[in-house]
Amino acid sequence: MSNIKWYLSKKTSPYENLVLEEAILRDENITDDIFYFYRNDNSIIIGRNQNIYEEVNLYFAREKNINLYRRISGGGAVYQDLNNVCFSYITHSKGSYEKFLTPIIEFLKSLGLNATFKGRNDLAVDGFKVSGNAQYSTPTRMVHHGTLLFDFNIEIMQNALKVNPLKMESKGIKSIRQRVASLINLMPEKITIEEFVQKLVSWFAKENNATELVLDLDLYETRLAPIRKERMSDEWIFGKTPNFEVTNESKFDGGIIRASYSVKAGKFCQFKFEGDYLSKVDTEIISEKMIGINYEVEAVQEALTKYDLIDYFGEISLNEIIEVIFGKY
């Protein structure tokens, strides 16, 4: 039977923390089950199978220097900062989401919170979502990981993530504010994030008779480096996105404009502008020039500034064209 150990990371980057999680998961020399705790600063973590362009406001993310990380597990996108706490179970045993979340529920109850398992993979307190979770398996082990929303920034979250309206409709809610809540606002006694982390680690160590995992990260770098290189590559972050098609339409003072396009491997492969804007020159010229350009705000801005847009789109501005292509940002 495996012993149980815990590890609290002092790093704050997903390219350290999630890379270390994956390295431990794949390290056959580590035979113990591991409780792993960490915090990521200013990061968007997306699921392995998600379309990053549909899930993330990339323009906003770049403006705010938000880290982008595509994890190896499925599930949805989350925004994380230092006021969120992440936890992982790296284990030889298999189990449902509810099984692995039961200890977290018990810990939250020890703080006086009415915590329950909710939906497919969430934790709730007083009906509000406070934790989302995902899993990934190898032939010999698995990882169950999740995030605890201790005191999240709702404004950053709403701007950074594009919430699928189907998710909101299926839950009968109208906004993120109705769906999620910060643990700090639900606690009977207020504590700091540092105190919360210490209580979390201490509780797990005591309840499981666990000892600390000792890692020399400098020596471990030979395992971390190749994983980090792959996870930081554009091919992994953007190339895993499936091909997709979009049609957006908006009405501005200069008229109605519609942008219909297809994206393959992160580049426009089909494009068409339509509308009742007062063009003097055929916009098909620009539509054709869009093919092959990266699906990025900066790339489109650079391409369009080469043209006298008044001739092509009348009074519709560059920012309005960008908005109809990418949505509001």
Automatic annotation (TrEMBL):
GO cellular component terms listed in the entry, alphabetical order: cytoplasm
Keyword Transcription: no
EC class of the enzyme, as a word: ligase
Annotated ranges, domain BPL/LPL catalytic: 29-212
Annotated GO MF terms: ATP binding; lipoate-protein ligase activity; lipoyltransferase activity
Keyword Ligase belongs to the record: yes
Entry-linked InterPro entries: aa-tRNA-synth_II/BPL/LPL, BPL_LPL_catalytic, Lipoate_protein_ligase_C, LipoylTrfase_LipoateP_Ligase
Reactions the enzyme catalyzes: L-lysyl-[lipoyl-carrier protein] + (R)-lipoate + ATP = N(6)-[(R)-lipoyl]-L-lysyl-[lipoyl-carrier protein] + AMP + diphosphate + H(+)
Signal peptide per UniProt: none
Pathway: Protein modification; protein lipoylation via exogenous pathway; protein N(6)-(lipoyl)lysine from lipoate: step 2/2; Protein modification; protein lipoylation via exogenous pathway; protein N(6)-(lipoyl)lysine from lipoate: step 1/2
Sorted UniProt keywords: ATP-binding, Ligase, Nucleotide-binding
GO biological process: protein lipoylation
Documented EC number(s): 6.3.1.20
PANTHER family associated with the record: LIPOATE-PROTEIN LIGASE, LIPOYLTRANSFERASE 1, MITOCHONDRIAL
Protein's name according to its UniProt entry: lipoate--protein ligase
Species assigned in the record: Mycoplasma testudineum
Higher taxonomy: Bacteria, Bacillati, Mycoplasmatota, Mollicutes, Mycoplasmataceae
